[in-house]
Write a structure and sequence with these properties.
404 residues, alpha/beta, Adenylosuccinate Synthetase, Chain A, domain 3, ten-stranded mixed sheet, four-stranded mixed sheet, 20 strands, globular
Length: 404
């Protein structure tokens, strides 16, 4: 059976910690979408790790799958493996890479950089979008294609006289990384993952509002970070999906451009950023911060079939006297000039420049000595969204949480 941990916002919800916490109960942890634009932060043996490609169960000696729905940068994967193995983590025995996963090339990265200058989406410039474009244009390179012909193509390119030393260094590093990861386990994982004796935890990347179809297009990622990505990204049946754990913060953040109705740019946003260390795990960019958005959270629960909620970073709001929640939106209709209110999420309306949040205010709390206002906040969210919050995270360590 398969349980899923996925993000319900703009990514950065704290999925890595929750997956690390859950992983002891499973045989396999499997990444199903995205690429090295993901940054799952985990604290292990008092050291901070940021995993971009390797699933977050690697610290618990579990089989860790990089599924066919993931796009892989060999250079980043090699660096990640070396860092983990240097600290005594057994990657060799536990990491398995789908032979159908596509790889990111130096050309994809360069194309991404050029695209971002024009589109200004706010991507990580890791080559993710162009790699998925090659995949769907049927011109991509999969892991299983590398030995067949790709090395010869790369080595022929390396011998071109037109290449400068800088280009040759990049290409040589890339070739060495490809050869390195071919020493690890590679296989056809669809049959393996449909073994009914396995307990599998599917690990999501990014968040629902960054989904290529259901997110704030065009300010989205390049893959399906929603529930459908589990099936296409791992080759498993919907019949095998049991629980869907939706992860969200007690407040809300976003990296990069795009609409963010409940964003607060004043002192509250700064406190959230400073206390919550809200800087992109992959890029280091400042995260935009704001209040929780109930219609967006309800929408994410609906389309993903979320069965349980996990709230993270409740402790970040400990010093707030008041906590706001966005319960709806208001906007001026361009036809009649009247102001309208909307209490459900709609991508098109959410992206309007004139939209404003409608807030409800709660008393602040302390996760150390004044938990009652937090419980009131939690119960309000549960009532509005219709899904129980089973776990609340109140710190960095994977055991800094409580169950309800």
């Amino acid at each position: 059976m398969i349980d899923v941990v996925m993000g319900l916002s703009f990514g950065d919800e704290g999925k890595g910690k929750i997956i690390d916490y859950f992983s002891n109960d499973y045989n396999v942890i499997a990444r199903y979408s995205g690429g090295p634009n993901a940054g799952h932060t985990i604290y292990h043996n008092n050291k901070k790790y940021v995993l971009h490609l390797i699933p977050s169960g690697i610290f618990n000696n579990k089989k860790c799958i990089i599924g066919n729905g993931v796009v892989i940068d060999p250079v980043i994967l090699k660096q990640e493996i070396i860092e983990l193995e240097k600290d005594g983590i057994d990657v060799k025995s536990n990491l398995i890479i789908s032979k159908y996963a596509h790889i990111i090339t130096p050309d994809h990265i360069q194309k991404d950089i050029e695209n971002e200058k024009i589109l200004k989406i706010g991507t990580t410039k890791k080559g993710i979008g162009p790699a998925y474009t090659s995949k769907y244009e049927r011109s991509g390179i999969r892991i299983c294609d590398i030995k067949e012909f790709y090395f010869k193509k790369l080595e022929d390119s390396y011998n071109y006289d037109v290449l400068h030393d800088f280009d040759k260094n990049i290409l040589l590093k890339y070739i060495e990384s490809l050869k390195f990861i071919l020493n690890y386990q590679i296989g056809s994982l669809d049959t393996y993952l449909n073994n009914k004796n396995l307990e599998i935890l599917a690990e999501g990347a990014q968040g629902t509002l960054l989904d290529i179809d259901f997110g704030t297009y065009p300010y989205v990622s390049s893959s399906n970070s929603t529930i459908g990505g589990v099936m296409t990204g791992l080759g498993v049946s919907h019949k095998n999906i049991r629980n869907v754990y939706g992860v969200f913060k007690a407040y809300m953040t976003r990296v990069g451009n795009g609409p963010f109705v409940s964003e607060t740019k004043g002192k509250y946003g700064k406190i959230m950023r400073d206390v919550g260390k809200e800087y992109g795990a992959t890029t280091g960019r400042e995260r935009r911060c704001g209040w929780l958005d109930i219609p967006a959270l309800r929408y994410a629960c609906m389309i993903n079939g979320v069965t349980s909620l996990v709230m993270t970073k409740a402790d970040v709001l400990n010093d707030f006297k008041e906590v706001k929640v966005c319960i709806g939106y208001s906007y001026i209709d361009e036809n009649d000039g009247e102001e309208y209110s909307l209490y459900t999420y709609d991508n098109i309306i959410y992206s309007r420049k004139d939209i404003k949040p409608i807030y409800k205010t709660f008393n602040g709390w302390s996760t150390k000595d004044n938990i009652e206002p937090l419980e009131e906040y939690i119960q309000f969210i549960e009532k509005e969204v219709g899904v129980k919050i089973e776990i609340v995270s109140i710190g960095c360590d994977k055991y800094d949480l409580f169950k309800r």
